[in-house]
Amino acid sequence: MRIMARILFVEPFFDGSHKQLLDTLIKGIDFENTGYELFTLPGKKWHWRARTSALYFAEVIPRKHVFEVLFASSVLNLAELIALRPDLMTCTKILYFHENQLIYPVRKQQERDFQYGYNQIISCMVADKIIFNTLFNLNSFLDSIPSFFKLQPDHRPKNLEEFIRPKSKVLYFPILIQTPLLVHPSAREMDKSEVLHIVWPHRWEHDKGPEKFFLVIDALIEKGCNFRLSVLGEQFQQIPSIFSEKKSQYQDVLDWGWVNRDRYVDVLSSAHVVVSTADHEFFGVSMIEAAVLGCFPMCPLRLSYPEIFPVDCLYRTELQLIKKLKYFCKNPNASRNLQMNLDKFKWPSLKSQYEEILLIKKQDSSYTTGISN
Questions:
Q1: CA angle (134 as vertex; 128, 139 as ends), nearest 5
Q2: Domain boundaries, given as residue ranges, for the chain
Q3: E strands within the chain?
Q4: pLDDT tens track of the chain, all 373 residues?
Q5: Are domains 7-175+347-371 and 185-345 of this chain identical in fold?
Q6: How far is C-alpha 42 from the chain's CA centre?
Q7: Residue 341 phi, psi (nearest 5)
Q8: For 7-175+347-371, CATH number?
Q9: Strand extents, DSSP E, 171-226
């Protein structure tokens, strides 16, 4: 006899890292004694998912249930869902922050939609537990609440950070990736000794800094550096024009655009260096996956990166990045010299903590704030 589910997963944007997280949890945790149900919307039209998904889920989540835990990403307006479905109020409500809207980069201040950040704040007010994927994500969100409300003309709320912080915890995104066995290790090392392979594996959007990346690549070409290039990443309706402009200019391009998961893993496994030029990053799944697969990560000295990677992997300016990549072009095998332990980001190290959050009873007092060890 099939048991009624106690765990309710809700994801308004079921794609990318949001989908990857839930896939890892559902495949990696034994729900035999608790059961689970998953309600999602396709990962497109993010702005509309953030605005309206609560009403959709209020209609489709069954009213006859025994749910004890509700786990949702911060794309969902949790406050609206609970107002529309007060029967879910008794659940332990867990809100997971892949990113936060309070410091999302925009071209102009007036372009910021106040409602997105506001929705995340009021969702925190009704959540029982709030999970951030990095300490940078947690602190940047909580520290920005007072300045965020300066956009409000009057009657501003006070002391929200003091109410939200005790419910907040850092729990890293779980990396689960298998090293491909398509090529013998000695052959891979031989291949890596020939020509440097640089990979840029990010969403094709302005906040990932593609313009800066291509300026760096242009500088390497002007200096006569020899390298191969892979530009990977998910694409949406509005693609920065720089991608089409540069595709026809570059030679020795191995991959350009979206590739399936198997090819993605193969590319990262064969590359020497993975580069980020992001202006917006709260974790960096692809950068950590690439590092796990043997790439030398080169990241800006900002955002979540100093929390994750050692100082040798961080650059202050694009000139520093160019200098480092030029060195690797002349010495590809030097990219293999980095000693870095990434076990704390891997699923086996994090599994028990996610199990505790999802499966503990509400009266269990073991939930604590701060960074998980």
A1: 75
A2: 7-175+347-371, 185-345
A3: 7-14, 36-42, 69-73, 92-97, 129-132, 168-170, 196-201, 227-232, 253-257, 273-275, 296-300, 314-315, 370-371
A4: 467 899 999 999 999 999 999 999 999 999 999 999 999 999 999 999 999 999 999 999 999 999 999 999 999 999 999 999 999 999 999 999 999 999 976 654 554 689 999 999 999 999 999 999 999 999 999 999 999 999 999 999 999 999 999 999 999 999 999 876 544 344 345 454 589 999 999 999 999 999 999 999 999 999 999 999 999 998 887 899 999 999 989 988 999 999 999 999 999 999 999 999 999 999 999 999 999 999 999 999 999 999 999 999 999 999 999 999 999 999 999 998 898 999 999 999 999 999 999 975 443 434 433 343 3
A5: yes
A6: 17
A7: -100, 115
A8: 3.40.50
A9: 196-201
**Overall residue count recorded for the chain in this entry:** 373
Residue with tokens 């594996």: 201
| One-letter identity of residue 230 | S
Token pair 């608790």 in the structure block, residue? 34
The residue type at 32: E
State how far the Cα of 326 lies from the Cα of 336, in Å rounded to an integer: 15
With 0.70 as the threshold, say if the pTM is over it.
Answer: yes
Superfamily of domain 185-345: Glycogen Phosphorylase B; (3.40.50.2000)
